[in-house]
Amino acid sequence: MELLVVTLAQVSAQREVDALARIRVISDTVRNAPGLLNARFYRSREPGTSYCMLTTWENVEWWQKAQERYAPAALLLSSAADVFHTPPDQWLMQYLWGYSRPSAQPTIATAHLALVRPEMVEHVQQEWVENLRQQAVEPILSFAMLARSLADNPSTTSNSQPGQTENNSPRTSFKQGTMFFNLLSWPGERYREDFYANEHAQNVQSLLNRTAIVHSMTLDPI
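The structure assignment produced for this chain is given below.
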């Protein structure tokens, strides 16, 4: 089974130039990893810059072999401590749904991390996937996917849960639940606005407001 690894790093505001240079080195390193199927790197637009790194591996075994030399979190931890606010957050996930329209170049993206209450996980998954499928009928999206955390999901830090804090880090003391990760990409800002104005996107937002703690980021591909 393919494994998605989502890695999120917070950057000190005074060190954003250094952080971007470091992320580019990490990107070049990770892309040479055996067993890697795909790697996507993004930079947030929000104040207090974050970097979101998505790596897809053939299976858990290849990921485990990559730990010493190619794991994004390990490479980030080897960076200077003053470049990144805190140790990176990292989640191991399985894909639930995906969409790609190669003819539409993605220029802007949004990522949603949602920690869903245990009793609502299956309902949220079913509703989220169905609403995404409905929106994919219209050629608005360039690329999109939805994934959920594995049941046995060791993370890089002890606080790898979403929730707004004073430095905009996706952390909270809420420990129980399943993490969902949703990435959406569009050819431009107008397409993004049209997507969120749709009733299916609003259905998902309403559902998550009732059942989850959500952290969202507007992203630019690197």
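Interim note for the steering committee: DSSP finds six helices and eight strands in the chain. Confidence is low (pLDDT under 50) at residues 154-161, 163-174.
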